[in-house]
């Protein structure tokens, strides 16, 4: 393989390793926000993708899959525990999501994070062509921009941060706060989901490193005494709308949506939640509000059912084990108190589904509940809107998601305010078709105009500006 003009670096490769019955190995394109976002562009630019295969101790040579050149990075079981489950998912994730769960600080996790970030950076530096471009993704790899720059000062480096960046008072807790800022500042363009995230980052840079900041531009002093400019601003991510529109128009998917409604006893209203089972998503708050509406008799299981898809996530991290117990206790109680032989309060599904089934669920749902306590963007909100080709349905959307900046016609909620969530659910359930149509048309315009292609184009054009 010749050196690649364009190299994506992300924690995971966009494929999953599948072992057949006779131990033979195949690779299946894996679902997920980032993959969906970058796949079309990777194909059109013949780029390379550096990432982990998702299983410990798997060492593989680079290979092609679906027209993308993949460069696997190997992680030992201990590195998975310390770099990935530890520092990324039990230190940075909770800290950057407003310490909804307490972040764990361990020096050996940090050491593993540095070691693994260096391995990714070396793989990217070896793959990229002279004067090429490296685009680093997300909180698992915050040190990679600076490490690539040290190895390859000729390349242009972008970094996109998919999760929130915290306010300085929280960020300052991180024992390695200055090193992480320096790592990110190795990039020419540092992209965030929301303007607020970029502002928090710029504040941290100014307060901790005392670098000069003017608007979105940061003056980064170099070893040789010169100054390099890095840009930090918002590039709100979106979805690849085409597959959602296609599936929404597909008669088989529409029939499946009707079948889902029928199998729930054709309730007057179906409410839907779709989340990775994560404490940032506000699943408990949503269930609590809904349970109280049933208990108060403002809703009845004869009329309304909540379908909650909670796809399994990070099941080896303690906080996620506890969260699952709490949610399942709450679901069991609410169903026990309210179910009848023919109707259930909550159809709880701790499973992952193919995209066709997700779209059928979106089509079946009258109300989509997105009540995240903190979320970088929340693509589920955009997927729901994209599939509503009939301009019906109501999106209830937490103001603590990135999506709330754009989707102004949603019913906005503060998920911490349980009475407010209850009121929002009632507003959604009772909304007239005319009002639904008015709001949904505006939401759809926004999502269809600002799709993932618009996102990647605007990031890449900022990188082009940086190159000049
Ligand atoms: C991070 C940030 C940011 C979920 N369950 C199934 C399934 N999904 C899909 C959804 C959606 C994706 O996974 C989840 O994306 P979100 O944006 O909602 O949330 P995170 O996973 O936390 O993503 C987030 C995102 O990165 C992108 O920058 O928006 O804020 O936290 O596409 O549909 N898909 C299928 N079956 C499932 O069971 N097929």
From TrEMBL:
<protein>
    <submittedName>
        <fullName>Trehalose-6-phosphate synthase</fullName>
    </submittedName>
</protein>
<dbReference type="Pfam" id="PF00982">
    <property type="entry name" value="Glyco_transf_20"/>
</dbReference>
<comment type="similarity">
    <text>Belongs to the glycosyltransferase 20 family.</text>
</comment>
<dbReference type="InterPro" id="IPR001830">
    <property type="entry name" value="Glyco_trans_20"/>
</dbReference>
């Amino acid at each position: 393989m010749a050196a690649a003009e364009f190299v994506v670096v992300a924690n995971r490769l966009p494929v999953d390793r599948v072992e057949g019955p006779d131990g033979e190995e195949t690779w299946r394109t894996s679902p997920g926000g980032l993959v969906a976002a970058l796949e079309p562009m990777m194909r059109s630019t013949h780029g390379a993708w550096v990432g982990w295969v998702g299983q410990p101790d798997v060492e593989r040579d680079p290979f092609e899959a679906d027209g993308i050149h993949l460069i696997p990075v190997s992680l030992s079981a201990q590195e998975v525990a310390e770099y990935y489950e530890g520092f990324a998912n039990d230190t940075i994730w909770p800290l950057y999501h407003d310490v909804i769960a307490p972040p764990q600080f361990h020096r050996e996790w940090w050491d593993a994070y540095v070691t693994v970030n260096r391995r990714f950076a070396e793989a990217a530096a070896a793959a990229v062509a002279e004067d090429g471009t490296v685009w680093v993704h997300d909180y698992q790899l915050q040190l990679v921009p600076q490490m690539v720059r040290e190895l390859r000062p000729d390349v242009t480096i972008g970094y996109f941060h998919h999760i929130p960046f915290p306010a300085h008072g929280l960020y300052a807790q991180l024992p390695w706060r200055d090193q992480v800022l320096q790592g990110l500042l190795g990039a020419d363009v540092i992209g965030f989901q929301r303007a607020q995230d970029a502002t928090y980052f710029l504040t941290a840079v100014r307060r901790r490193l005392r670098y000069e900041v003017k608007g979105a531009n940061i003056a980064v002093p170099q070893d040789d005494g010169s100054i390099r400019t890095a840009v930090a601003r918002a590039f709100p991510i979106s979805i690849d709308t085409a597959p959602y529109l296609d599936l929404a128009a597909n008669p088989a998917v529409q029939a499946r949506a009707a079948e889902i409604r029928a199998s729930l006893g054709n309730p007057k209203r179906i409410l839907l939640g779709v989340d990775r089972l994560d404490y940032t998503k506000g699943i408990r708050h949503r269930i609590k509000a809904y349970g109280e509406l049933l208990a108060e008799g403002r809703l009845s299981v004869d009329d309304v059912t909540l379908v909650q898809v909670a796809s399994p996530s990070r099941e080896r991290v303690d906080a996620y084990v506890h969260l699952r117990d709490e949610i399942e206790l709450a679901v069991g109680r609410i169903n026990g108190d309210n179910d009848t032989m023919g109707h259930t309060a909550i159809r709880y599904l701790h499973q992952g589904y193919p995209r066709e089934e997700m779209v059928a669920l979106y089509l079946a749902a009258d109300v989509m509940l997105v009540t995240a306590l903190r979320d970088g963007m929340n693509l589920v909100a955009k997927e729901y809107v994209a599939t509503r080709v009939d301009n019906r349905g109501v999106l209830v959307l937490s103001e603590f998601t990135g999506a709330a900046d754009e989707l102004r016609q949603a019913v906005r909620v503060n998920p911490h305010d349980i009475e407010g969530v209850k009121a929002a659910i009632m507003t959604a359930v009772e909304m007239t078709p005319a009002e639904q149509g008015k709001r949904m048309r505006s939401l759809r315009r926004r999502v269809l105009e600002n799709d993932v292609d618009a996102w990647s184009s605007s990031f890449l054009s900022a990188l082009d500006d940086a190159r000049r």
